[in-house]
Amino acid sequence: MAKQTRAKAQDKAEIKQRSDTAQVNAPESEAKVPVEEGPGERTHDRPMFIPQVDIYETETGLVVAADLPGVKPAGLEVTLDKRVLSIYGRVDEETLEGYGRGYREYQVGDFERQFTLSGDFDINGIKADLKDGVLHLAIPRAPEPQARRIEVRTSA
Amino acid sequence: MATRMLYGLDPFRQMRRLQNEASRVAKRGSARAEEFPALNAYANQDGVVITAELPGVRIDDLAVSVHRDAITLSGERQTDIEEAKQYHRRERRQGRFVRTVSLPFIVDPKGVEAVMKNGVLRLELPRAEEDKPRRINISTR
């Protein structure tokens, strides 16, 4: 019983982490963190991991740096829908001709993570750069909208 | 010696003996360092291929050395960004790492190939010719 409630609390923490950019929930261990099972099952049978990220502010906007080892540019999908930024990286495990699997310390799988952005961003100005297995997403802030003063008249 | 001869028949059995001899990760703010990087190995009779995920490690910051049956991976990962004014999240590890593993055979250092692609290191480690099992012809005099 106690176990169950703990599992639920974890679920909640996960949801919170997804919906709140300010929440810092860095994985303690060096091992890859698998994505929590959602309500639906995935159609293909391979593990999915949460990529580790750094998110920082620059002069012009926000940069998301994500570790995506093994992801080729063709296997990368970055989408921004409303304010939800989704990063998905497909990893094709290389099969080695004539070799058997001998020893395994890490699993190979895809990467997926979502963030909710707070504030206005210039969607068309997003730059994505994938190099050495690290994705750098530069998301510029939208120019400040001109403040418009609304005159309030009092009817005499 | 008997197990060594069996290598040709079942390389995996020997591969499971792949041991960590010395591993350490120097990283900030964490006392319990785990093995870094994690390694996968694939074996056949002529050698082993080792892979490791090292995203963001530049080739210039990575060193691989081979001595007899021991492979040492060492390097450094820099995740500091100068233009960062303020961090919202900081999960990517940084710092130096050293990891040594020993294989169940002597490696031919001339045949070693190391390729870094998309943040994944792939090391091809061929078994030294003199270390390979040799078939002995049995004759009846």
**How far is it from the N-terminal to the C-terminal residue of chain A, by CA?**
67 Å
Structural class of chain A: mainly beta
Strand order of the largest sheet of chain B: 1-7-5-4
Average per-residue pLDDT of chain A, rounded, comes to 78
- Major sheet attributes of chain A: 5 strands, mixed
Count of discrete alpha- or pi-helical segments spanning 4 or more residues of chain A: 1
Using only C-alpha atoms, the radius of gyration of chain B works out to: 19 Å
Brief sketch in words of this structure:
Chain A has 1 helix and 10 strands; from the N terminus they run H-E-E-E-E-E-E-E-E-E-E. Chain A is mainly beta and 156 residues long. In chain A, strand 5 and strand 6 (84-91) form a beta hairpin.
What does this structure look like?
The complex is a heterodimer of chains A (156) and B (141). Chain A is mainly beta and 156 residues long. Chain A has one helix spanning 2-19, and strands at 33-34, 48-50, 53-57, 61-67, 71-81, 84-91, 100-104, 110-116, 127-131, 134-140. In chain A, the strands form two sheets. Chain A has a five-stranded mixed beta sheet with strand order 1-2-8-6-5. In chain A, strands 3-4-10-9 form a four-stranded antiparallel beta sheet, with no helix packed on it. Chain B is mainly beta and 141 residues long. Chain B is 7% helix and 43% strand. Chain B is built from two helices and nine strands, in the order ααβββββββββ. The two termini of chain B are 27 Å apart. Residues 1-14 and 19-33 of chain B have low confidence and may be disordered. At the A-B interface, β3, β4 and β7 of A face α2, β2, β3 and β6 of B. β3 (53-57) of chain A pairs antiparallel with β6 (86-90) of chain B.
Features:
heterodimer; A: 156 residues; mainly beta; five-stranded mixed beta sheet; 1 helix; 12% helix; 38% strand; disordered N terminus; B: 141 residues; four-stranded antiparallel beta sheet; 9 strands
